[in-house]
Amino acid sequence: NAGVTQTPKFQVLKTGQSMTLQCAQDMNHEYMSWYRQDPGMGLRLIHYSVGAGITDQGEVPNGYNVSRSTTEDFPLRLLSAAPSQTSVYFCASSYNLGVGNYNEQFFGPGTRLTVL
Amino acid sequence: DAKTTQPTSMDCAEGRAANLPCNHSTISGNEYVYWYRQIHSQGPQYIIHGLKNNETNEMASLIITEDRKSSTLILPHATLRDTAVYYCIVLPTDKLIFGTGTRLQVFP
Asked: Residue A41, SS3?
């Protein structure tokens, strides 16, 4: 299994540009999520999905869109990039999150995004 | 959702036990305590979780107080590779929320 893969590893954008960060997992996990991590800070949840066709907002959703058309893929779209979105973006997946359920979130290697 | 409080940073000598505390005084009866760590700039890594009993795996031990208001993650023989930020998280919730964690520095 490849686990959780993210592309690209690095990206530089200009203010106002749009792009999509890709995330894929081959573990048949229901739950997928996106986090951002600013320098010296903890991870903050952007959006998450509990299954194909279902998405919801996390702590910091503004400026980002997501969709979940398949179990495997969970892309994150920046509609109009801003310097405040300069960060490292992590995608994660697990079987589920819920009451009493054992779950181990598997994280991708991250995408380092710089917005000029 | 129950919140957690952790010290900002801790030091530990290599080969000694590292004891990382976490306070979760508002935890509910069906909420689990999870620990993750993040080494340098990598994605976080699951360590261990528990409900009310103490738990042990190949990486660490988790001690939860009887009232469940606090817990301690124990790395029995810390190595330099255990230098990382350690996050204590309380579930269930439909979101995995990370706080700022404890930065553990293991020194030779």
From this structure: coil
